[in-house]
Amino acid sequence: MEAATPSLRPSREDDPTSRSAAPSQKDSPPVIRAHNLCKSYRRQTRQPGLRGVLRYLLQPEHETIAAVRDVSFEIGKGEMVAYIGPNGAGKSTTVKMLVGILVPSSGSVEVAGLVPHENRRENALRIGVVFGQRTRLWWDIPVRDSFTLMRHMYGIPQATYARNLELFREVLDLDSFFDTPVRQLSLGQRMRADLSIALLHDPEILFLDEPTIGLDVEVKENIRQFIRTLNRRRGTTVVLTTHDVSDVEKLCDRVLVIDKGRLMFDGGLERLKRQYGGEEVLSVDTRERIAATDLALLSEMPGVVRVEPDGLRLTLSYDPLVVNPAALIETLMSRHKVVDFFAGGTEAESVVRRMYQANAALVEAEAEGGRRP
Amino acid sequence: MKLLLYWEFVKIAFRSRLAYRSEVGVLFVGRVLALFVQVAIWKALLGAEGHADSSIGSITLREMVTYVIISRSISVFVSLFAGYSPLWRIGEKIRSGEIAMDLTRPVGLRENLFFETLGNNLFEIVFGVLPMLLAGALVFGLDVPHPAYLLLFAVAAVNGLLIYFLLSYMVGLIAFWYLTVWHLERFLNDLILVFSGALIPLWFFPPFLVAISEWLPFRQIYYTPISIYLEKHSLPEAGLLLIQQLVWLGLLLLLERAMWKRGVQKLVIQGG
Amino acid sequence: MGHYATLAGLFVKVHFKSQLEYRQAFIMRFVVQLISRSVELLGIWILLNKFEHINGWTFYEVMFLFSMNLISYGLAGIVFFGPMHDLERLVRTGELDSLLIAPLNPLFHLVGRYFSSVFFGHILLGLVILGISVLNLDIGLGAGQIFWFAVVILGAGLLQGAIMLAAGTVSFWLVKSRALVNTVVHGVRSFIVYPISIYDNWIQVVLTLVLPFAFVSFFPAEHFLSKPESSIFPAFFQWGTPLVGMILFLLAYRLWTYGVDGYQSTGS
Ligand SMILES: Nc1ncnc2c1ncn2[C@@H]1O[C@H](COP(=O)(O)OP(=O)(O)OP(=O)(O)O)[C@@H](O)[C@H]1O
Ligand SMILES: [Mg+2]
């Protein structure tokens, strides 16, 4: 919270492809540490009908749902980590344990040297939290008043507050709605206000749970740019969950994948691609229908995984490690009258999809095979 | 057949109450506690002599205990708490604009709410009134009147609940003009509390309050049925009381139709 | 601590700012609450107009009881009623999350955000009723008496607040707890409208040792009105209100922190 923190203003020469510049976990001590972290929820089960009512009144039954199982990881200072997984995988549950909302069922967490749920207040001063689905702003009063409240709540020195406020107003364009009551804000406006509020006190670590959910492309980009700059200039550690793979591609070096409560992958995006990568998709539109014999020829090309004709459109799935897409297009153009082509789907997205599918198969096998080492 | 549809309303209301059955136990305890408080108060007041003079002759402690048990039973239907009363439901419908949809349906909103309330009340009979009557009868003792009076009481009690339904519904209609009606719910309940004889029988009231209560419909909900139950009127008198209730019902129905017409008109013209 | 004082001031400011948006509703609530309480008093008057006294307590004496109950209820209500009433929703929707990631005591935060100033009406009405009853009773009005009365009211406020807090905390375990809050808070409160000596012994024991509402008005009023002790308990209970209030509040606060630790949030 010193006034000496370097300016965050994004400058022209920011390279949009550059990733977190801060040292990786290897050469700095971890700021987040999760060890064999588990969380189960208790849920009441109810039977239908009158018998169920009486049963419920006399002796309510519970079931437990293991939402997070045995998850361990360490995150170094200045890292930007994406925490991804399909719906219900346990992402939010993990984040809630890291920020101190939930008490783990077993295992341990440490954030900036503290156990979050035991030191909620101290922890709160060091972290910034945004839940995309929820707001921390006061509903009925202008955004400005919420900011003032936060300033006092976090005991932010005037100089820090003024510097941050000026920055956020400029970069996130808060001015256009700064005096509007929160209930009248659009989702994108509310999100920007919430993000600002989470950062007013210069937190060391920023937790974002689906920060780009429901936002348009422009606001998404604005927010990503902002987070990237924040990380580069201040070394803020960022942990974010998302379903938008471009968030991962544009922001994070490291990916943690969780499914059914278990950590399935921990490593760089590049490694994830190599491990689960493979398929990319190419579609071409041709003037004439391609003959079946030609299709057979195409599908026998090395690296081509699948060939799916659909009227005048042909969709090819191929392994980018074996075949170069440019060469593939060239071959196609030389043999057929191609009028248009598209490289369909984000690359990373298909990686993630494949990964989820692979995991599902794994988990199923595990369930069938009973115990597994 | 419309009746089948109405029966659906009844069932839906009954079932949705089942979904929140954790309330049942809590409410039961609350009601039994209220019973204890009321009985203790009358014991303290009538205790020494075991009876007291009133505007209609001597009242015994045993009669007062019966009065309390019956009145608490009726109150199960009357103080349907927030969310279930007709007033609350119609207020919500108007506030949220759902009312526009109801207007396009072939079933009247009043009928819809009436059968919903019926479903709620069936639920309350099973899970509210019966357990409490049982508890009251076992712990304090409950007088049962002559069958003729019991029959008249049943009719009077139903009439009283119909009157309550209309009152609650009409106050709900005020939402056409003034959106947040749930404050009025409490106001209505307060009026009922004083002038209906829910807690204190009108025969212990000072004359000027009795005079006021005679011009208000509220006494029809509690006082009339319970005083019939306690055989405080001759049979012809009781018959007259039933006719009086019907007159009130008619008046309220007329008023309700007038309010409804104007409200809908306002909704149609101003778009709510 | 100073930081909490500044924040408290800000919370109050923000509260009134947002109430301004719902002025009409605020005034209605205020009026309706006053009517409700006055109706209760009217009921007491009707009974004691007819029967003159209940277990030796006259109308003005019961009014004195009523005013103590009302004022302390108003104090507790301002602070706790709103938050505890809303807690059910906050837990069900997971909105409580945001209170747990702020560098503040969550209960302080919750109160700061959801307290309901409307209950001020209870205090006003209570003071008026207190005034009327004192004018009609023969009560010594020394500085010591007035000071002790203030202390007792604070203790009684803590006690009523503790009951609200405990009842509200049940939201952490029961999905629909509003019925419980209302039943406990209103239901138990109705027990102490009249002197507790009218009840069977077992109810007196419950009201003194289990849910010690008797300390809100009955025991301290015995002292102020110099009533010969009529309950089954010894005379020194007349001095117990502040202590009982504090103990009960601490217990309720423990329950609250226990509830917060078991809080499950929601899946979305
Ligand atoms: N408060 C709760 N009570 C009971 N079960 C819960 C609760 N919160 C989450 N769950 C369950 O725990 C599991 C993990 O939920 P969690 O919210 O962590 O998933 P997620 O990865 O964030 O999913 P999404 O991408 O859909 O947000 C799910 O099966 C969910 O149903
Ligand atoms: Mg989630």
Tell me the total number of β-strands of chain A: 13
Low-pLDDT segments, ≥5 res of chain A? 1-26
CATH topology tier name of the largest domain in chain A: Rossmann fold
At CATH level 2, the architecture of the largest domain in chain A is 3-Layer(aba) Sandwich
Rough outline of chain A: globular
Between the first and last Cα atoms of chain A, what is the distance in angstroms? 48 Å
Helix content of chain A: 25-40%
Tally of alpha and pi helices of chain C:
11
Description:
The complex is a heterotrimer of chains A (373), B (272) and C (268). Chain A has 373 residues and is an alpha/beta fold. Helices cover 37% and strands 26% of the residues of chain A. Chain A folds into 2 domains: 13-47 and 62-275, Rossmann fold (3-Layer(aba) Sandwich); 280-346, Alpha-Beta Plaits. Chain A is built from 12 helices and 13 strands. In chain A, a hairpin with a 2-residue loop joins strand 8 and strand 9 (262-268). In chain A, helix 9 packs across helix 12 (347-368). Mean pLDDT of chain A is 83; it is low at 1-26. Chain B has one domain (2-271). Chain B has 11 helices and 2 strands, in the order H-H-E-E-H-H-H-H-H-H-H-H-H. A two-stranded antiparallel ribbon of chain B has the order 1-2. In chain B, a hairpin with a 6-residue loop joins strand 1 and strand 2 (59-60). Chain B is globular and about 65 Å long. With 268 residues, chain C is mainly α. Chain C has one domain (2-266). Chain C is 71% helix and 1% strand. Chain C has 11 helices and 2 strands. Chain C has a two-stranded antiparallel ribbon. In chain C, strand 1 (53-54) and strand 2 form a beta hairpin. In chain C, helix 3 crosses helix 5 (106-114), helix 3 (59-93) runs antiparallel to helix 6 and helix 7 packs antiparallel against helix 8 (178-190). Chain C is globular and about 60 Å long. The mean pLDDT of chain C is 90. Chains A and C meet through helix 2, helix 3, strand 5 and helix 4 of A and helix 1 and helix 4 of C. Magnesium ion binds next to helix 2 of chain A.
